[in-house]
């Protein structure tokens, strides 16, 4: 290491900790192995706890294996004080590494320097406080340095976002090409404020000769849109819930004359409600602080935030960015008037917002059936909308269905009715937001009087979001950020890296985020957009089906697992999925994805809105009549989804950005507590990695400002001399070293100032060459004459040699044809035998595999039958238990019925007995005077005997009047007693009749219950039969599927066997070509070793190269015509010898099949030796008199025939005439 100050990795929240090297421990076994080096360091950080091992003064042994290149990252230290080096531009860091970049940015942030340069990229830390760095003096300094006087030698001002706006303005004025500035970063990193700072600076660069009222309108449009499109989230108090691309329009003099704004994907769901700790859109809270006259017009008189379900009381009274809602309302009202929204237009606009707020208070309850009814007061809402209350009540509780030419009303459930009202409120607010944007564009857009205008686009779009629960809106926002990250990667990294890598320019290993996989997962052919749109079109599309299809259609072919960007976790429920974005993994909850993407608005409420006041009516114009040439219904539905619309908008945005010269500002959120001077190392380094800052610095330092094609360099600077024919040698000879340039495959890259030096040297050398032109011209004239005479002599010699060799060639040609036919015949016979054996082996193997698979199938079938029997038994047992329980219940009911019937009979019998007793009593009543009296109660002690005695006494003593009087008195008392008994018996009879009626009623109810139980039993029996029938159908389907699977397995086995045979054939062909190449190499080496004639050696090498290239490029061999190769006339004898040698090689002697198979290569080498001896004068007396083979059976090379690598039938060549000599290798078909 060059110094002792290093960085050491540490767990969060430190990430990297500065330290000083104390010593290095290297074992004896690893002196030459840097992988086993360990270093003892002492930490310098005092930000940790004293008990932490990373506290200042504590020591630790560090293993180098855990660090890049097995080296600890070095610190950037000042030479005098040994303090950390703090620079304005990261490119200037002496030691470039991740901890150095983090340290430099953190120290600048703590010194209240939020901006740092990274080449042309500006890194902006959110300071979370107002800083005095946006004054007119700072603007003037940046304008002077970067716009009006760029060649000034004065030192540049400190890094600032004004640098980006100044450069964009300067490039627009000089190149007349549109510019764009992309401000990107996470939510809460300060993107919106940065865009406002840029807009303010661009509007003040050139104010023109007169007051420009458009500038004030453009600047006022920012807080106006913030009121309607921004809200408080858990991460940011003023988070933009929509995307905005503002195109500032400048005339030819550079004066800001207008602007045009496009907005993207307003988060409509925030209208109806937000999570804990958040607020809805700012305007809802601002208007509650408005004047009473305004509130009366909106129907808000006497109401607060707690009276509206869309607003709530939690967010009322909060201070956002140092201002109350009442102060912001004043600014918003002034901005509305400034852009031309006032008077009746403003009243209707505010009245529409009031309608949206009141729509949230509409509540529903069930009407006792399938429909619903309004449980809240609709009077104020109907009055605001200027519609009848009853009509409004009907529209929100019923839905109109149209079938052909008929239409009918369908009642809505309370939930459906509430969802319909919420959807209408969200759409109405979104329409008003777009109307507001259109009014701002009308007020700020440049007119035709300004002529052609240039554009500087400022993109302020929602940052990357990852919450505890991420919905459909977060997926759309993060997809947009993925597209912007891809453009940043292409612009800053990929173009430079790909060019340098394709040219072979050495660069350090650069790792940068490539999010193509994520974009393909979302917008690809089988991506999330297509799947979700399909679910919206399907009649029974659901969120769960969307998630399952997303996983099923995005799996790798290797392991059928999740792709690297689509994460699947067993702990996820059926509506959860996770995507690995460039900024980290995000888990999404797909609840209501289909509903939010379809974005269905109740038709009845839309029709009702067209009868309201103009501001609402104009928001929902009548739909155009469908044309006869319209596309299919499914395509129109897909095109109308939220995601499809946003995809089209995003595509148009990326197209517009591609037409501009783009500059970047990367906003960084230093901490989540929103505190100044505090840096969270973990989140900051993650944002830096996602932004690609390290890779951007590395590429910028390795850049070359000038480049030329190699041919152009050779053409321009060869005149400078030096070098050995290479561009590198030429430039080294001229420049003296390699430090000033790099040579790629097609271009030469020069560092600053090198190309200018070469141009000066070239002009000097061209002047020296001017004096030699005349001599060269005269030499050329004379040389031309000599070449004409030489070409005539060569032509005459060639003609004579051609005639002499023609006759020799004819005889050799006829002999070679006979040899080729014999060789091809033998090779074909061997190939036929091989194919027959292979076919027989294939049949045997097929029979064996069939028997083996049949046996396995039988075993599997037996096991399946056993499993099915067991399963049926289990199923029937369950059914039997249910039936047994039902039978027991039925018997119990029958026993109860019998007992009740018996009790009823007894009661009936008692009733009849009572009636009989009553009748008997009635019959006895007239005879009471003649019959004996019944016994008296105990309280009257008179019995029947006494009465009889009295009657006897009365008869016996009839003359006694006193006795008669007593008898009559007693008779009267007896009659009274009998009457009471009769009344008592009648009362008991009535009671018995009432009890009888009650028992009859109980009996009737028991009979009804018995009938209902019988019907339930019959229904259950029918359901059981249906289940049995379905089970049989499923068994049939399973058997058919098994049959199809067996057929597929057999087909796969056949295909594998066929592939094996083709592979063997191709391998044999390759062996043949390799053997042929080796033989040609032997010929070339032999000629070089034994020949002293350099010209002959060159000629042989040329022939060998032509043979090899022709053979290798052709599909079945090659043809060589030696006569077409130029040879000097004075080498006639050597050339004839060479022709004879190649003739011997190409025309071997015939031999038997067995010898040919065993000694093919040896025979061919013998022919080669014989030919070479004829060339070098060795004679032919020592050659082997025995005939040599024509080649190897498999993989050999036969010159002059058609065989080779795989055997088979060759083709004979009839080409050539005169002295042409052909060499024909042959291959298997």
Automatic annotation (TrEMBL):
Keyword Methyltransferase: no
Basic and acidic residues bias (residue ranges): 908-925, 1180-1195
Residues forming coiled coils: 982-1012
Molecular function, one GO term: actin filament binding
All copies of domain Myosin motor, residue ranges: 85-763
Keywords annotated in UniProt: Actin-binding, ATP-binding, Coiled coil, Motor protein, Myosin, Nucleotide-binding
Gly residues bias locations: 1197-1210
Presence of keyword Zinc-finger: no
Protein known as: Myosin motor domain-containing protein
Residues holding ATP: 185-192
GO CC field: cytoplasm; membrane; myosin complex
Region (Disordered): 908-944, 1172-1229
Species the sequence originates in: Triparma verrucosa
